[in-house]
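Intended use. Records like the one below are meant for learning the mapping from a protein sequence to its folded structure. Do not use them to infer anything beyond what is encoded.
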Amino acid sequence: MSELNVNNITKSTGTEVVINDGSEDVDFRVESNGNANMLTVNGGSNIVGIGADPDLGVGLHIKTADSGASVDSYADELVIEGSGNSGLTIASGNSSEGSIYFADDGDTNKGRVVYYHASDSVSHWVNDLESLKIDSTGAVTKPLQPAFSVYLSSDQDDMSSSTTLTYDTEIFDQNADFNTSTYTFTAPVTGRYCFSVNQLLKNVAADITYIRLKLVTSNRGYQEITTTPKMFDATSDYFPMSGTFLADMDASDTAYVQYIFYEGSGTSVDAKSSADYSHFSGWLVC
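Structure written out for the chain above:
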């Protein structure tokens, strides 16, 4: 190592003190009573260390002991290291918030994780929207998770085979993905969706022996098949059908419900309207 010019190491301008103004490979170190490297600026690696000579990351390395770990270049500006338990504490007032914010050139809080001390709850925000919340009891809710429940506002009479059930009234439609004009759910994201149908029928034609309740999606159909009272030489004013289906859907795929019969040509099947026993619902599972 060549002899250093002291003037390149320390410089005072009257308004500031500059250490290593000449960009020499020289470390700046501050000792405490029990630590020789309480604060270290490593001149060769361009890392600042607290508690030890820094050897991880590209920014600030807080180290109480060597863990033997390395760090990913996607998250190496701040490294907290210890050989046992390690962590970060954000201390706030007992009626205030503790937050981690994620920013870009378009927004200062594009994403964030917030702990609300007043209610002892935590929220995860994505694209400036609250997407997940855990309350003080540990219950997890997803305010934007797609989910809907709809029913017929009036009887749908004289249905023929392959008739779409006209679910036109919402009980709820979280995320606004169900269209009550086309009676169709549109998947907002790719995933697995669970659908449940419970429909009360009436006046099933005498020559209809098998009925299908079919969930029709963009890439396949799911069916619940049952026999009618005709198969047992019985008569009934009302005939309930239900089915639960797990569908694999891509974003923008659609789903709706059809009534279909196997045998017979009658057109006197009626779908009864009621939010209690005639409804169609669905939700994103994963």
